[in-house]
Design goal:
The chain has about 120 residues and is an alpha+beta fold. Helices cover about 25% and strands about 35% of the residues. The protein has two helices and five strands. Helix 1 (about 5-15) runs antiparallel to helix 2 (about 85-105).
Length: about 120
């Protein structure tokens, strides 16, 4: 079953707003953060940085919940990012995960989304 229109709209809204979200969401550290954003008619989503593990297999954990109260729809999505020291690379990895959720029916992205910082050639 394809994603419902409210979830797709919420994911697109989050993708559009991702560049303007606070850096703390994308920094590889223990500081957690959550934001609730209303969109459309009676709908909202929450985007949360739910955790960070440091070590050989470092991860930043994220959650997205899209809710439309009138229709009783609630979709919960989770993913993790193998972080870079550069928050801009982590932000792009989260954007990749959101695009994955837009195109699939999955609710958990279990594979790593690598955050890679590329340097311009000299």
């Amino acid at each position: 079953m394809p994603r419902d229109d409210i979830t797709l709209a919420g994911l697109q809204d989050l993708l559009d707003k991702l560049p303007g979200l606070e850096e703390v969401f994308f920094e590889a550290n223990l500081q957690l953060k959550s934001v609730k954003i209303h969109f459309g008619d009676g709908a909202y989503y929450t985007f949360s940085k739910n955790g960070y593990s440091k070590g050989h297999y470092s991860k930043i954990y994220y959650g997205i919940t899209v809710v439309h109260q009138d229709r009783g729809i609630s979709t919960q999505l989770t993913t993790y990012v193998a972080p870079s020291a550069q928050s801009s690379a982590n932000r792009e990895a989260v954007a990749s995960a959101i695009r994955y959720f837009q195109l699939t029916e999955g609710t958990v992205m279990t594979r790593d989304v690598e955050a890679c910082a590329f340097e311009a050639p000299q």
